[in-house]
Write a structure and sequence with these properties.
single chain; COMT_C; 7 strands; 14 helices; O-methyltransferase activity; COMT_dimerisation; binds S-adenosylmethionine; Arc Repressor Mutant, subunit A; Rossmann fold; globular; transferase; S-adenosyl-L-methionine; 4-stranded mixed beta sheet
Length: 256
């Protein structure tokens, strides 16, 4: 390249090293969520910067256990991606608070957060599919998840109640705040709608929120897989029908 300089070449080499090690970012995020670091720092709303040793005491109040230095490495990594803010105090000690990004991982009053979304995406079975992505180019007939685990993702989840549950809570954690923002933001696309079908509605959160906000919607249909609909909460009041696409036929039943 004509414009290539020593500086741009060095930047390119640094960039490719960063890309080659990028897996450390989501894996650190997953570790922080598994260790419940966001809730420990948030501590009911205080968000006071804590050292890694203090966080460790919060998340693992055992006299012996844990390695604060390893936790600090995770915190520093994620601070560089805007999840935590690093504060260096007088003694040189590093302390960490949550940024707005980090706060999305804190459990809210409804028991929801984006934490389950992080966990859901890093389950062993999903992670196993990633090294097989190139196979989707060579042979697109089998998706990487199925290649790694023997069957497509949703039928795999459906046979495993814990995975199914995590999938639903992950979706609720993401969809509820988004739907709230849409409805509070004055979106009026539901005006005049009487029957509403949510295709792939998961736990039915979006449908419930829309029906609460728009009483003119008197019939809501959560169209999802049988094992998903079976775990979806019923919608109090209002008439709701739950439809499952239990192939090859449809099962229709009233939910309340
Ligand atoms: C990414 S989630 C969508 C979550 C939901 N819309 C929300 O906002 O929370 C995809 C949904 O599609 C459902 N799904 C997958 N395959 C399906 C099928 N063949 N028929 C109906 N639903 C299906 C899954 O069970 C899952 O709930």
């Amino acid at each position: 390249m004509e414009d290539e300089t020593v500086e741009s070449r060095n930047q390119a080499r640094l960039k490719i090293l960063e890309l080659a090690n990028m897996i450390s970012v989501p894996m650190s995020l997953n570790a922080a969520v598994r260790l419940k670091v966001p809730d420990a720092i948030w501590s009911g709303g205080s968000n006071v910067p804590l050292s890694a040793a203090q966080i460790l005491t919060e998340i693992r109040p055992l006299p012996s256990g844990g390695d604060a230095e390893n936790l600090q490495r995770i915190l520093r990594m994620l601070a560089s991606y805007g999840v935590f803010e690093e504060h260096v105090v007088g003694t040189g000690e590093r302390r960490y608070s949550l940024t707005d990004v980090g706060r999305t991982l804190v459990t809210d009053a409804d028991g929801l957060s984006y934490a389950d979304y992080v966990l859901q995406h890093h389950q062993d079975e999903l992670v196993r599919a990633w090294p097989l992505v190139h196979e989707a180019v060579l042979d697109p007939m089998v998706e990487p998840f199925a290649r790694a685990n023997g069957e497509p993702a949703y039928s795999f989840y459906g046979k495993r109640p814990q995975m199914n549950k995590l999938m639903q809570s992950a979706m609720s954690g993401v969809s509820v705040p988004f739907m709230k923002a849409i409805l509070d933001g004055g979106y009026n696309g539901f005006a005049g709608v009487k029957r509403l079908v949510d295709v792939g509605g998961s736990a039915g959160d979006c449908l419930r929120m829309i029906m609460q906000k728009h009483p003119s919607v008197t019939e809501g249909i959560n169209f999802d897989l049988p094992e998903v609909v079976a775990k979806a909460a019923t919608i109090p009041g209002g008439l709701m029908w739950v439809v499952t696409c239990s192939s090859p036929s449809l099962l229709v039943m009233p939910s309340s």
